[in-house]
Amino acid sequence: MPRPCRVLQRQGGAFAVKLCDMFRNWLRSVRQAIRSLEPKRFDTYARYAPRVAAALSRRGYDLFAQGDPDGALQAFNEALMYAPKSALVFNNRACAWLEQCEYARAMQDCNSALEIDPVMASAYCNRGSAYMGMHDLRRATDDYERCLSLDQNYVVAHTNKAFVALVEGNYARASEHCNHAMQLDSAYSLAARNRGIIAFCLRQFEEAQNYLVRAAELDPKAAELVVWLILTSRRRGTERDGEFTAQLAALNLGKWPGPLLSFLSGTSDEPTVLSAASDPNPDRELGQLCAAYFVLGEAALINGDPERGQMYLRKCHDTGAINFLEYCAAKSELDHLGVSREMSGPEAKSNE
User: Fold this and answer.
1) Which CATH superfamily hosts domain 153-242?
2) What does the alpha-carbon distance between residue 214 and residue 216 come to, in Å, rounded to a whole number?
3) What is the mean predicted confidence (pLDDT) over 267-276?
C-alpha cells in the first residue's frame, strides 16, 4: 500500500505537497509524543537502588553487631550491587573482613572507601587495624593518627593506639590512651577490656578484674571476656564455686573461644583445646593458637607447674600474633618470670 503523502503528490500538485508536509510533521510529532510516554528502562532502578542498598547495608550492620560476620558480608556484597560507589558500604564490609581475619580484603575495601571519600576517618581506623593484622605497627599507627587528625574524638582509634602501645610494652602510654577513650565513651567495652588487660600485664589483678567486669557488663555476650575474668579471678585466688556458671550457660561453647572456657571449666583437656584452635584461615588459626597457648600456660602456672606454664607462654609468644591481647600478656608474663625471649619479627620491625 502506497504511503498517503505519495498518493496526494501524484493527485494534487503543489497543494498536495504542502498537505503532505503538514501530515509528515504531524506524524513526526505523534511519534515523538508516543516515545515520551514509554517508560525509561532504568528510571525505576535509579530511583530505588539507593534505598535497597541502604536497607541491605543496615541489615549487614545489624548482623555484624549480632556476631554474624558471614551474614553481614553477604548483605554488604548485595548492597554493593546496588551502590557500587558507596564508601560507607565498603567501609562496613571492611569491618566484617577484619572480624574474619581477612586482612588483605579488609585493606582493599578501606582503600576503595578512601578513594570515594578521602576524609572518612573510620576507613583510616579500619585500615590501621588491617595493618595491625599484617603485623605492621608503623603503618597501623600512621592510619590511626590520620583518623584522629580528621576526628580527634574517634574513640576506636584511641583504643587501638592503646593496643599498639601495649604491644610495644609501653604500659603508661597504653593506659593513657585507654583512659582517654573511656572518658570519650564510658560505654565502649573494648576500652575497658584493654585497660583491664594492661593491668593484668602489670600483675595488678584486682584492678584488672574491675575493668574486665565493667567490660563484661557492657558486652555480656563477649565470651573472650569470660576467659579473662576466670584467669584474673584465679590469679587473685578469689574465684568462688559456681561463680561463672550462669555466664558459661549463656554462651555457645562450641564456637571459639568456647573451647577455652570448656577447658577452664574442667570439661575438656589440652589436646582438645589445641585441636579446636585449628582453622582453614591461617591468620585466624594463628590467633586462636596464641590464645590457646596463653590459657594453657596460665592454667599451668595457677596449678603450680611453672615449667609447663613457661613452655606454653613461650609458644604463645613465638606465634608472633601481635594483634592478639594474649601475645602481649604472654610477653609480660615471661618478663616477670625472668624467661629470656628473642624479639619476634613483627615486634622487631616496629622498633626499626
Assistant:
1) Tetratricopeptide repeat domain (1.25.40.10)
2) 5
3) 97
